Amino acid sequence: MKTLLLKLAGPLQSWGTHSHFEVRNTDPYPSKSAIIGLIAAAYGYRREGSDEDIERLNRLDFAVRIDQPGNLLQDFHTAHPVSSKGDIRQAYVTRRYYLQDAIFVVALGGDDEFIDAVLRAVSHPYFQGFLGRRSLPLLDDFILDISGKGVIEAIQSAPWQAADWYKKKHRTSQYDAEIYADANLAENQQTFMARDRAVSFSQQHRLHGFRPVVRIREVMSHAVSETDHDVFSSLGGE
């Protein structure tokens, strides 16, 4: 049993599970279907490919921890549809939502061979991964760690990934990170149903099912890393 830990961070992220037409929402944390889509892209699976490949990825144990929730941003886009003759039709406005400065830790668990294969795929992806939208690239610290622990134990023991400025805001108050995990990974927890189980990523028949999820709270350490930055040393001072 191994667990792959991934870090999702960037100026903007967007993780919608129920967007329609001109309004593109984001959930407060990445969905399992979004991460399965990211892994499928790394493998090189096509949208019209085999749904059995997606089902195999669904068997990965999954949990996500909110290390820094970020702020909600609403953005306006204007779209100009073009007819088959090249005529520009009337423009319409779309509203798109993003999370600013959010940081998440994702844990994916499975047998050793499966996790090693996933690690190779995300290390050398066939298609570029992104943070919910193609314009939001992954950062270079995306691959966080490999653990020999189970998913829940691994994500609970992973260091808090929030930025130092955010940790300083919680020096005098406790920060409880929320963890959302597959319900079968934690006993005696209240469950709810989330519609983020990927069934098909086909453009014509995109389909998602439900899966039971549990929410767990984890108290994070307040440790803030010290910096070696010294602006006066560059000026020749001591």
Automatic annotation (TrEMBL):
Give a yes or no for keyword ATP-binding in this entry: no
Q: Does the keyword Ribonucleoprotein apply?
A: no
Q: Which UniProt keywords apply?
A: Antiviral defense
* Origin superkingdom: Bacteria
Listed GO MF terms:
RNA binding
**Entry-linked CDD domains:** Cas5_I-E
Any one GO biological process: defense response to virus
A Pfam family that this protein carries is: Cas_Cas5d
Protein's name according to its UniProt entry:
Type I-E CRISPR-associated protein Cas5/CasD
Naturally occurring in which organism (per UniProt): Bifidobacterium aquikefiricola
Q: What is the lineage of its organism?
A: Bacteria, Bacillati, Actinomycetota, Actinomycetes, Bifidobacteriales
